[in-house]
Design a protein that fits this description.
With about 450 residues, this protein is α/β, with parallel strands linked by helices. It contains 21 helices and 12 strands.
C-alpha cells in the first residue's frame, strides 16, 4: 500500500518539470518510505535507480555501472565497468544533454563510506558539466547525521549545489489510519500509539486480526519483523549502542529531564548522546509552546519521537527474557492490555494537536494557528495550546472510558489563569477533547457559552 505522500510527489514532479538541472536531496530515518516514494516517482520516466549497500568501492562502482549501462545502452551492455567515478558521472551528463534523465542514488552514505573522495568528485563534475545538463540527480539516505554532514553541511564539498531538499517524516495519524481503517475509532488511536507513522511498521499489521492479535503475532513473538527491529536500527545507526539504549530506555520509563536521565543511566556525558539521538530524529526536545527562546528554555524535556520506539522500550526490551522463552501471551495479558489505554493517552494528545492544525488550516477554527504544542510549569500542564496571532485555544484531552464532566472544565479554567501571562493578551478560548464524550451537565453548562468548544472522538479523528 502506498499512502498519501501527495505533497512529496508534487514537489518531485515540479522539480522534474523545471527544465533545468536538479540536485534533489531526500533524507529521513530508516523504514520511513523514501525508497518507495522515489520508486513511485520514477515510474514511466527515463530513470536510473541504484540502491547502494555496504560493498567495496570496486563492487559499488561495478554495480552502478551495470545500472547505468542497462538504462542507457540496453541489458547487453551492462557488464562494461567505468574505470573511475568521474567517467561514470560524465557518462550521465552526456546522456542528459538533451533529454531529462532521473538518477537516484539511494543510500548515498554507503557510497561515500566506500569511497570518501566521491563527494568531491561529484561536486567537480556537477560544477563543470552536470549543472548544464537535463539531469535530475536525487541523493537519498537513511543516515540522517551523515546525510546532513556529507551533503547538506557547510563543510561538505556538495554544500550549495542542491536545488531542493526534503526530510521525509513518518505519516501523521490521518494517513497512518488508512492501514487499519477497519478498526473502530478507539483502536485506530491505540494502533497509532503503538506503530506510529512508519510505513514499514504499518505494513506488518494484518487488518483481519484484532489489535491484540497483531501485537502478539507481529511484535511480541520471536522471529516477527518488529521483535528485534529497534535493536537492528540502532545497531545500524550507532557505533556504540549501549549508552544510547540506556538513555532511550530511561526516557521511555518517564525520565524526561536531563538530570533525571543522567541519574537513571549514570551517564554524565548524556547531553552528547541526546544530541546524536536528536540528529537521528529518534528523540526530540520539547518546550512549552509559549517559550520565546526555546533553545534557552530551562523547561525543556526529552521525549521519544517515534511511537514504536516508545512501545518497544516499554514492553519488548525489558521483557526480553520472558519473550525469548515463549512468554508473549503472558506479557500481552499481564502488561500490554491492562496498560494500553494509559500508554495511548500521550498519543491521543498528539492526535488532538494534529486535529487542531487541520481544523485551523481548513477554516474550522476562528483563527489560523501559528503554533500548536502544549504548556507546563513545575506543577501544572495543559495538554494542547493552539496559538494564533491574536487568539489562543487551551485544551484538555481525556482518554478515559467515561464521559468527562464540569470538573474538567473548571480545572482547565483554573489552569488558564496560570497560562494567561504568557499569552501576550491573546483572546483565550477553551476546548475539551474526549474519547468517551461529555456528561449532560457539561453539555448544559457550555450550551450558552461561545468561548468553550467540545470535541468527541469522531470530531477529532475526522
Amino acid at each position: 500500500m502506498f499512502v498519501n505522500r501527495v505533497a512529496e510527489l508534487e514537489l518531485l514532479k515540479k522539480r522534474y518539470a523545471s527544465g533545468k538541472a536538479e540536485f534533489f536531496v531526500l533524507y529521513g530515518r530508516r523504514r520511513v518510505g523514501k525508497t518507495e516514494l522515489l520508486a513511485r516517482f520514477c515510474e514511466n520516466k527515463r530513470a536510473i535507480f541504484f540502491v547502494s549497500d555496504l560493498g567495496s568501492e570496486v563492487s559499488l562502482r561495478t554495480a552502478l555501472s551495470a545500472a547505468v549501462n542497462t538504462v542507457l545502452f540496453g541489458p547487453h551492455q551492462m557488464n562494461a565497468v567505468y574505470s573511475s567515478w568521474e567517467d561514470l558521472f560524465l557518462a550521465l551528463a552526456q546522456a542528459a544533454q538533451t533529454e531529462r534523465l532521473v538518477v537516484v542514488l539511494d543510500e548515498f552514505p554507503y557510497l561515500v563510506t566506500a569511497h570518501p573522495p566521491l563527494a568531491t568528485i561529484l561536486q567537480r563534475v556537477w560544477d563543470q558539466t552536470l549543472k548544464n545538463s537535463q539531469i535530475m540527480l536525487i541523493l537519498c539516505g537513511s543516515y540522517i547525521g551523515m546525510m546532513e554532514a556529507a551533503v547538506l553541511g557547510y563543510q561538505s564539498p556538495l554544500y550549495g549545489r542542491r536545488t531542493a531538499q526534503y526530510l521525509l517524516e513518518p505519516l501523521r495519524f490521518q494517513d497512518a489510519r488508512l492501514f487499519f481503517s477497519s478498526y473502530d475509532a478507539a483502536d485506530q488511536v491505540r494502533a497509532y500509539a503503538i506503530y506510529g507513522g512508519t510505513p514499514a511498521y504499518l505494513h506488518t499489521l494484518q487488518p483481519q486480526q484484532s489489535l491484540s492479535e497483531n501485537i502478539l503475532d507481529g511484535i511480541l513473538s520471536r522471529g516477527s519483523f518488529l521483535y528485534d527491529e529497534v535493536r537492528f536500527v540502532l545497531q545500524q545507526e550507532l557505533r556504540e549502542p549501549r549508552n544510547y539504549f540506556a538513555i532511550l530506555q530511561a526516557i521511555a520509563a518517564g525520565n524526561t529531564r536531563l538530570n533525571e536521565i543522567k541519574q537513571a543511566t549514570g551517564i554524565e556525558g548524556a547531553t552528547a548522546y541526546l544530541d546524536t539521538l536528536q540528529q537521528l530524529h529518534l528523540v526530540e526536545r520539547v518546550v512549552p509552546v509559549t517559550e520565546t527562546q526555546p533553545h534557552k528554555s530551562r523547561r525543556g524535556i526529552y521525549r521519544l519521537k517515534d511511537h514504536y520506539l516508545r512501545f518497544w522500550f516499554r514492553y519488548v526490551h525489558p521483557n526480553r527474557s520472558q519473550l525469548e522463552r515463549g512468554g508473549a501471551q503472558m506479557i500481552l495479558e499481564n502488561q500490554v492490555i491492562p496498560e494500553i489505554d494509559h500508554f495511548t493517552s500521550l498519543t491521543f494528545e498528539e492526535v488532538c494537536r494534529q486535529s487542531f492544525w487541520r481544523a485551523g488550516i481548513s477554516g474550522k477554527l476562528p483563527f489560523v494557528p501559528t503554533q500548536v504544542g502544549n504548556w507546563w510549569n513545575a506543577n501544572e500542564e495543559v495538554d494542547v495550546v493552539v496559538l494564533g496571532e491574536t487568539d489562543a485555544v487551551l485544551a484538555e484531552c481525556k482518554w478515559t472510558s467515561r464521559p468527562i464532566g464540569v470538573d474538567i472544565l473548571a480545572e482547565l479554567e483554573r489552569k488558564s489563569i496560570r497560562v494567561r501571562p504568557e499569552l501576550e493578551n491573546r483572546q483565550i478560548r477553551l476546548a475539551l477533547c474526549a474519547r468517551s464524550g461529555f456528561t449532560p451537565q457539561l453539555m448544559e453548562a457550555v450550551a450558552a457559552r461561545t468561548d468553550v468548544m467540545l470535541f468527541d472522538l469522531t470530531d477529532i479523528i475526522g
